[in-house]
Amino acid sequence: MAVYADLILYNGKVYTVDKDKSWAEAVAVAGGDILFVGANEEAKAYEGEQTKVIDLEGRMVLPGFFDSHAHVSMGGAEALFTVDLNDCESQQEAADAVKKFLDDKPDAEVITGVGWGNAIGTGIGPRKEILDEIAPHVPVCLYSEDHHSLWVNSKALELAGITNETENPKGGVIERDPATGEASGTLRESAMNLVTNHIPEYTVEQYKKGILAYQKMAAACGITSVHEPFMRNGNALDAYNELEKEGKLTIRFRNSLFVDPEKGIDQVEELVAEREKHSQGTYFQTNSAKFFIDGVVEGATAYLEEPYEHIDSHGELVWDPESYKETAARLHKERFTIHIHSIGDASTRIALDGLEYAEEQDEPFDSRHAITHLQLVNPEDIGRMKKLNVVAVPNPYWFMKEPNYYFDIEEPYLGKERAERQYPMQSLIDAGIIAASASDYPVTMNFHPLNGIQLGVTRLEPGKTDEDLISNPGERTSLANMIESFTINGAYSLKLDHLTGSIEKGKKADLIVLDQNLFEMPEGKINQAKVLLTLFEGKEVYREEEAISVSS
Ligand SMILES: [Zn+2]
Questions:
Q1: Phi and psi dihedrals of 54, rounded to 5?
Q2: Is the Cβ–Cβ distance between 461 and 492 less than 8 Å?
Q3: 33 forms bridges with which residues in the sheet?
Q4: How far is the CA of 70 from the centre of ligand 1 (A)?
Q5: What is the pTM of this model?
Q6: Which secondary structure element, helix H or strand E, spans residue 288, and what is its range?
Q7: How many whole angstroms from 468 Cα to the centroid of ligand 1?
Q8: What is the pLDDT of residues 450-472, one digit of tens each?
Q9: Distance in Å, CA 346 to ligand 1 centroid
Q10: Which end of the chain is more exposed for a tag (fewer CB within 10 A), N or C?
């Protein structure tokens, strides 16, 4: 009996991202799977009476993109329910945005916002007084765009019980006025929890709305699989489970559970039980565990081998290294994939020490542990990453000398020499490490993978041509490598490579159509290509109707 396809795409430039990097003309889809990939002529054999047909007229087809680290539930809810500070260029502008929010919602019991750039308050960060002026009566808590700092007013400090006597919590900093010693309004890393523990979390409904809004944006960018790191919130987990049951997920989510540095090894059983609860979903599962080892350069909390240039500090370790090692080893034994936030070179060394220790305690298994961000890496540790088979999850969206960040923060904080060797990519690939790219949305608001791909190739701010602005030029990589990092390598890192990540017979029909062939475009214009069609398991989740017509 002949098997007919539900849909056949003809006349495409299909870049399959299979082992041989082969190209094809046609793809046939049946029951959500890829039935055939190859020549137009042969695809005809799968065309039955019910088969729908798309003539691609020479357009490019790629596997659906992965985002290997995106805070979907948090970012989605924030975008809908908090003050947006992303365009504010000064503390005053941010305060004005808060005031406008308060004018619209005078009964708000707490005001949260997100998105201020660290350049609006270098050093000890933005100050509480400017917020006190507009909101003396209600707590205001504003996350920086990287979510590693929280700018608060006096009412929020009061709510948290922070006084002049309050010491910095482990792995955190309460910024203080250098003259008076008084908390000045910015909290870093774990010190943020002193306030946020008192702030009501988003409801399940709010999270669901946020996830659905994200899915819509992501489908238009060709994203079909995502890893959301650090789920620690019952409501967000419930939101995913409900959306799965309601059949509303159009992205395959493989998320991580947050590993709390306060609880150490004692929480492993809890995490195992939590994972069990989400192990049956088709599109939503939590198979990995997320550690934060350090903070970020812009908060001077990334943990560095050599001290910062502007202050006498190496940064902050979020975990006690011994406790991290033991906890990681236990999670490894429980067959969690471990996903580690590490920015500083000293932090990455500690991260690897723990993974090495975990391997030594156990028989070998296909762990695919990952380290993400990797802003500064000691070259010796690149070899260790390869040896331990650690996946790199870099953020190519940050591979540039960003006007505010690079010259106002990275160069003065790290010194010229270190700033010049940030964000390795090609040297990871040369070492044989699998690199799976990620946006870290909402840290990167414009998370379109074509942006990330372009930046990985050029390492230059889009629109710029000045060669001096290329960030760490030796780390530029090829377009083919960047495409892999957003497709098959993402699948590998989430243990989905048997299922998707390339266009091969038997895999899920996660496919996208682009208006142009990326290999024929100037490097600096890759992000101007457009996604015209996104299929998730053969189902259309995005289509530009004027550009792509389906006939039967
Ligand atoms: Zn992140």
A1: -125, 125
A2: no
A3: 30, 508
A4: 6
A5: 0.91
A6: strand 284-292
A7: 29
A8: 999 999 999 999 999 999 999 99
A9: 19
A10: N
